[in-house]
Amino acid sequence: MPSAETTRASVHEPEPVRPTRDDEIATAGSELIGGPIGRRALLGTSWWTPVRVVALVMIGMFALGMVQKLPCYDGGWFFGASSQYTHACYSDIPHLYQGRGFADGLVPYFDKLPGDMDYLEYPVLTGVFMEVAAWLTPGGGSIQHQEQVYWMVNAGMLMACAAVIAVCTARTHRRRPWDGLMVALAPAFALTATINWDLLAVALLAAAMLMWSRGRVLAFGVLIGLATAAKFYPFLILGPLFLLCWRVGRWREFGTALLGAVGAWLVVNLPVMYLAPEGWSKFYSFSHDRGVDFGSVFLFVSQWMKIAITPDTANTWALVMMVIICAGLAAVTLTAPRRPRLAQLAFLIVAAFILTNKVYSPQYVLWLVPLAVLARPRWRDFLVWQACEVAYFLGIWMYLAYTTSGDAHKGLPTDGYQVAIAVHLLGTLYLCAMVVRDIFLPEHDVVRREGDDDPSGGILDGAEDVFVLGPAGHPRRHAAHFDGVPGADWREDPVPGDRSL
């Protein structure tokens, strides 16, 4: 029987949401493990709490992703360029062990590399991650053996990052811990987790989202700064946060988060920036100068219309499109009838960056998975998007097999690869459209339908609007806090007066 403490906690704390209650896909899938969730598991009175289950499932799926790379581990990375593509098991990690000087003991950013790539082209914190893995890799044996061990060491470190991502996502929405299973079971996550080092930044951002949901503003800022020191995209989250804090008038908290982010980024970057300025700037110059590359809308247009798009042209158009999208998100944030949830805007801004970028590497899907789960925890739409990403994952490797094998019958021709790019773009746009619909029609938002306001919003959760534009400001419809009461009417405005514009 549950203890007295558990019973008292269950009286005062809102009951967790059962995903099998109103999600037909979750209900059908639960039959594979014994049917819909029961009250004992729901309240976490056994050892098998939702967070522990999510973490173990993530580790299991990550291990399956490692098994999927077995054909390359046994020789595909070393013997023949096309076999790593036909088996869809390519990874940057073993190739860059020697190609970026780790095998020779070169220090990233300080020591020049042989060949065209004069310095490591990764942000500083990712370079530290790569270097630590190199320290843990024994130097004996053949270079092929060292590359195998280097990949395995990195896989172990990235597995820890994956577990952090799953746990943080499961805990960010207090009443929806089982949504973390969507991250853990995401097929594109397992397939792309060990292609590159993106999971470090994803884990830091997931931890930042958890800290913000708990009201830990400074910790959120520090983690955002560290995540940006590992990959640029997490810094974009501060844009939507600025808009949301503007709408509710929480400037002090936004300033604290911004100072924490800038401070943490500077702590990591300043030493390298000062001591090795050329090596430090390589990531930024490489990002600016690289040409149109795989998976991007620019490559699709270039191949379809048979025109060449220069890096400068792509940079200009990417910037223009991002400015337009950011302006649109600002309009959505300040005019929506109910303030958007932070996770919704975070997903949209990162998706916009991916869609307008000059390159879409398969592992970039990792950036979106935890944000997508927080933004729209609906299995049907999530799996539709994941199917599109898996199709692109297979498509790019088959295209590379076609272009590197010299055999016209092995792989996917250009026309087929264009279809794969279109599937990726349309799948991401579809999920974005669902999130935007939830913003303007909150009754379709599965999180708010359960009576919550913004469980990942921290200080924004239940906050009153002080600045609203358009029809939503007449009368002002602020985001009332429902205290977990399903069915509460968010349109009611118990606070007299109207300070919106």
Automatic annotation (TrEMBL):
Family, as annotated: Belongs to the glycosyltransferase 87 family.
Keyword Transmembrane helix: yes
Keywords: Cell membrane, Membrane, Transferase, Transmembrane, Transmembrane helix
A Pfam family matched in the record: GT87
Region (Disordered): 1-22, 478-501
Organism: Streptomyces populi
Protein name: DUF2029 domain-containing protein
Transmembrane domains' residue ranges: 47-67, 119-137, 149-170, 182-212, 218-244, 256-276, 316-336, 342-361, 382-400, 420-440
Protein location: Cell membrane
Membrane-topology annotation of the record: Multi-pass membrane protein
Compositional bias ranges of the Basic and acidic residues kind: 10-22, 489-501
Keyword hit for Protease: no
InterPro entries reported for this sequence: GT87, UCP010361
One GO CC term on file: plasma membrane
Organism domain of life: Bacteria
MF (Gene Ontology): hexosyltransferase activity
